[in-house]
Amino acid sequence: MNIVIYGLGIIGASLAAALKDAGHTVLGKNRSRGAIEYALAHQMIDKEAASYEGADAVFVALPPDATMKELDEGDFPECCIVCDICGVKEAVEKVVFSKPRKYRYVGTHPMAGKETSGILSASRDLYRGKNLVITRAAKTDEEALETVKRLACDAGFGYIVECTAREHDEKIALTSQLAHIVSNAYGKSPLALSVKGFTGGSFQDMTRVGGVDETLWTDLYFYDREPLLNELSDLIERLTEYKKALKEGDREEMQRLLREGRLAHDKFFSEK
Amino acid sequence: MNIVIYGLGIIGASLAAALKDAGHTVLGKNRSRGAIEYALAHQMIDKEAASYEGADAVFVALPPDATMKELDEGDFPECCIVCDICGVKEAVEKVVFSKPRKYRYVGTHPMAGKETSGILSASRDLYRGKNLVITRAAKTDEEALETVKRLACDAGFGYIVECTAREHDEKIALTSQLAHIVSNAYGKSPLALSVKGFTGGSFQDMTRVGGVDETLWTDLYFYDREPLLNELSDLIERLTEYKKALKEGDREEMQRLLREGRLAHDKFFSEK
Question: How much is the pTM?
């Protein structure tokens, strides 16, 4: 297939390289020249895209606002499959489905990334074995969706899950967005600067993804405001129960809270 | 050296095997027979210890309460080095230094573990490259402490840090205890049961250590109550700031909070 990837950051460039390796013709489009040259030099794309002309599929791999603008205004060919890769989906669907489109939209969200961004962090096996969420709506073209699933397999994804945009946004609020807030907040303890030698694995795990790009993540949080607010409020409430037990010296309650968490933990780990 | 390890769970048995591999004579003591037989069959100990007689060093690798009882009442030989491996240190020192002891106490806390416990989870390279915290007090015997450091190197630890019991307890409240509470609480979201396919690495990191043994960890939390209460209260306060920004639609404040966390994150990651 002829595929155009617009936005050669870590997500777009890794996807370009994986699809090119799978035998597709991949053209790259990027606002700055540097990434195009890097992608060409590293065989991540076949050439630069002058336009979307001739594309069977386009992946718009830009930040949320820029993605929505492109999906609204981009000059996509008739019947072309157009995918976004945003970490929020209801907001994107709202723009796409606000009027009839020539193109066929399929929402995707690759559940892979690194603590760093940009094309220098891209790798051709970033998606190997990873999860991909694909969103479907009443207006989704089934053939387009099936094609995207095949492309996902070509790119190396190990598990593909389909759901509505709302379901995506609710679950991602828990699995990704809340985790980044907790991690960001966790590392603000004044003691975090003097823990060398005092860490096993748990502190690293808590703080690993805390170094977020504040502009991108503020956008993501506000596009997923209600589900995220629910999860964050609930977590604060739960943490406050442990605090209360500790403050009041209530060992039985602490044991009860920990047991409840252990049982939940065992349950979702066994269902994974 | 002749070393006795009392308590052949994951921590004790892994230590026994590593020290035996390094050429020491290691005797095991355990309340149940099963672990002794397993340790003998897997060359983790040389033989069972009938008593502490002839021991140059003893590691008491029991849960906190049992450790303190043993340090208070155990029949250790004159001048024998006796170490605990507890995750709290002030409480242990308080017991040890409450009266003159024939033995020489050195507190240790191996910063290594797994999500599972018991001798079946033990491994001879559990401590390879890991951190060990050693606590020192005014009453600490310097020669004993130096010997324990050499034993730690023999066991494979990669980095050894010395500090007071108080300093240990404050930092561990952040690096370990709080992380286990957050992880335990995080996994209680009702959505946690239906996230298959919706996870990258951050959800796994947040929930990995959540399946805690509620009896052991309640003990640890209550022995480290004040430092832990401080860290937990502070984290709840910080999370509430993000919640407020989200609730009030204050994007600038959200960006400020995330930037603050990113800078803290970059700072301690660069100092690691």
Answer: 0.93
